[in-house]
Amino acid sequence: MFEALTSKLNSTFKKLTNKGVLNETNIASSLKEVKMALLEADVNYRVVNAFLKAIKIRALGNEVMGSLSPGQQFIKIVNDELVKMMGSENHGLAQSSEQVTIVMLVGLQGCGKTTTVAKIANRAKKEGKKTYLVPADIYRPAAIDQLQMLAKDIGVPCFESTKEMKPTDIVANAYKAAKASLANYMIIDTAGRLQIDDILMNELEEIKETVPIKEILFVADAMTGQDAVNVAKTFHEKIQITGFILTKMDGDARGGAALSIRAITGQPIKFIGTGEKIKDLEPFYPDRIASKILGMGDLVGLIEKAQEHFDQSKIESLEEKLKRNSFTLGDFQDQLRQIRKMGSLTDLVGMIPGLGNKIPANASMDEGALIKIDAIISSLTNEEKDNPNLLNGSRKLRISKGSGTQVSDINRLLKQFMQMKKMMKKFSNMGQDKKSMRAMQQMMGPGNMNMFQ
After folding, report:
1. Last residue of some domain: 85, 114, 144?
2. Residue after which a domain boundary falls, among 85, 112, 147
3. Is the pLDDT of residue 95 over 70?
4. 164 and 123, same structural domain?
5. Alpha-carbon separation of residue 201 from 31, 158, 217, 336, 351 (angstroms)
6. Local structure of 323: helix, strand or coil
7. In whole angstroms, what separates CA 226 from the centre of its chain?
8. Contact call for residues 100 and 179 (beta carbons, < 8 A)
9. Distance of alpha carbon 304 from alpha carbon 313, whole angstroms
């Protein structure tokens, strides 16, 4: 996400940092380029103007003119104002004073409400919270069945709605059941429409009057850009939205909705959907998003992903092997598979400070290279995995046939594996923060394998 915007902004900043002194002329020129980049990213015009005005006031003051590094200070101002535009801090789900906190998801048809209900429930379950799901969309074919199946997959209770029931009756009865099950959260999936209409809004208002709803979250398809912002504004005026969830952020290279929606409505973005799987829901952190937009990565997010997907005992075992210099191709294959669970290589590399701004817009890492490496290692015997020096010409020929690769692919893997072992051993011997060190150990190895080829 944000690839196109990141590329344009970094081009602008590069010109600016080459200036020894900033003045009104080159600041004005830079702001003009920033404006064009934001408008092309489909950011709301009024939001862009307010954003640039705030930057100009700070950039023309002593904050930059007195700085030893004016260009870097200008970038810091842009970062600060981006964070402010998007809400400054993360806002999780609100907690009601009632036993059950009721969350209602609303939005147009096709935005991903039903799947997002399940994603929230899955996330809450991992945090030790009990959820109770409520299918209240009686119009879309199979909407009720879809949520009930998703609830079964993640192991949470779901109300037995039918399309013959009224949505208000569904939520009223579900509320009683949620309290009886001692749920922490009751999450309601509501009907959507292809466009806003009075029937839809009236139904949502009736549901609001039926049960004590704490959160009304608008689910928006990020790829629709300003259309999503305009629809969100109308919903907010009608039923008072308390927050937003942006879906399909993994497919949105522009980011206009994420940068506009909070400034237009005054309500925070709480989560973003980053893929189709149930696990692909992340809290929205404005400071981390701003860093990614400016090509500065998101090391905290990278470490969190590593902690979520890597087994602690395996990490400790890996550290011991690195210290003994006994890291094998089998160990590497295990690490590789863990990396693939974390998401696309493009997203992961973009989270590494200093690398995000070096990936061209619309470029993607070669996921096929990882599959090829896995196939090669799978074709090795356990003895060969432990001792790659056994791999002579005849063995390599056997492995290439078994993995559907070329002998040259095997040679490249072996060469890079030895380089990677040396690099990982250096990391294991460095006396840096252990938490960061472990995450970087996990990432640096497989991430070095053909990613830019």
Report:
1. 85
2. 85
3. yes
4. yes
5. 41, 24, 14, 49, 40
6. helix
7. 20
8. yes
9. 17
User: Average pLDDT, stretch 19-31?
Assistant: 80
How many domains are there within the chain? 3
**The domain spanning residue 23 has which CATH number?**
1.20.120.140
Are 269 and 308 contained in the same domain? no
Work out the pLDDT band at 131, boundaries 50, 70, 90. very high
> Same domain, yes or no, for 169 and 269?
yes
Give the ranges where 86-112 is alpha helix by DSSP (H): none
Q: Which of 15-29, 278-292, 431-445 has the lowest mean pLDDT?
A: 431-445
Give the span between the Cα atoms of 430 and 198, in whole angstroms. 63
Confidence of residue 183 (pLDDT cuts 50, 70, 90): very high
In a domain, 92, yes or no: no
Q: Which helix (H) or strand (E) is 135 found in, with range?
A: strand 131-135
Q: Are residues 271 and 408 in the same domain?
A: no
pLDDT given for residue 292 in this prediction: 78
- Decide: pTM greater than 0.85: no
Compute the chain's Rg from CA coordinates. 25
Helix (H, G, I), strand (E, B) or coil at 106: strand
Higher pLDDT among residues 123 and 27, named by residue: 123
Taking residues 235-245, what's their average pLDDT? 91
Average pLDDT, the chain: 80
In terms of C-beta density within 10 A (0-12 exposed, 13-18 middle, 19 or more buried), how is residue 418 classed?
exposed
Structure tokens at 161: 């709605």
- Cβ-based neighbours of 76, under 8 Å, separated by 6 or more: none
286 lies in which domain range? Answer: 101-290
Give helix 434-447 / helix 407-429 axis angle, nearest 10°. Answer: 170
